[in-house]
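Subject: sequence -> structure tokens, single chain

Hey, anyone have a minute? Need the predicted structure for the following. Not urgent.
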Amino acid sequence: MKAAVFHGADVGLKIEDIPIPKVGADQILVKVAACGVCHTDLHYIEHGVPTFKKPPVVLGHEASGVVEEVGGEVSNITQGQRVLIPAVLTCGKCMFCRTGRENICSDMQMLGNHMDGAYAEYVAVPSKDVLELPASIPLEEASIIADATSTPYHAVKNRARVQPGDTVVIFGCGGVGMNAVQLASAAGGYVIAVDVNERKLEWAREFGAAQTVNAGKVERVSKEIKKMTGGGADIAMEVIGNPRTIEEAFDCVRSGGRLVIVGFTHEKISISAGKIMFREIEVLGSLGCRPVDYIPLIRMVEQGKIDIRKQVTHRFALDDIQKAFDVMKEGASLRSIVTP
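Reply:
Had a minute. Here:
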């Protein structure tokens, strides 16, 4: 089969012919319909972030497809079913899994990181993790539910705990950030989207943002937000992974408010512990999505409350995957998918 194989930072990504994976007794083989192109992959390819599996490794963690083959012990999935593959697979046995915190499973396995992923014609995964997709949801666009939609769903619902009437400032209007805008708006929040790309701010308004701020055109975003909200937002969400914007997001929050960090950075940040204490500000991290949350999320997509079609702005064949990363770096895409 054809696959995009990562050989490490020095060699990069190559399109190669490799064997079709063999399924174990509890696994299924999925013929990949599409795989979303995520900034996380760019971190591996260009920014020196290591994969858990030593290269070579097939990248890609945001996939949907059709079941081609099932292992001998599989009883919950049948051949021919349309399925979504969550980006992170959980063990179901550790303390975190047993207490409903599967998204921080102590033995999690991420596609395209711990194991070969879905920038390929086929991928093998445990049957217990996949979810059946209703016929009304387009199969290729459904791939982005696996991460670009599920990660902000968990962040908005379980970590930010957005309630009707909350003012919510969202820093970063990429694929994940745009879904945070859409989901926070669907939850009843008054959403203010922040970015430096005017086209993405236009998209944010289309996806439910009540107001937008171009960070490149104001002296201080936090000062602007305080004017707009009468003293600060109830909730700020940083969906970029930039120390400066995390600090700015913290400065946007009112007393008693909440900062949720969704974007990844390995760098340190500098925020005032005194302000956290004296103003009772919550600072929370948010990682991935719990398996239990995929079912209501898929229902929201099925009911049209979350629009995935409009989010997919670019499509590429597997051979052209580098073009997907190019448009991402240019800021021209909202979400790109690769269709093997």
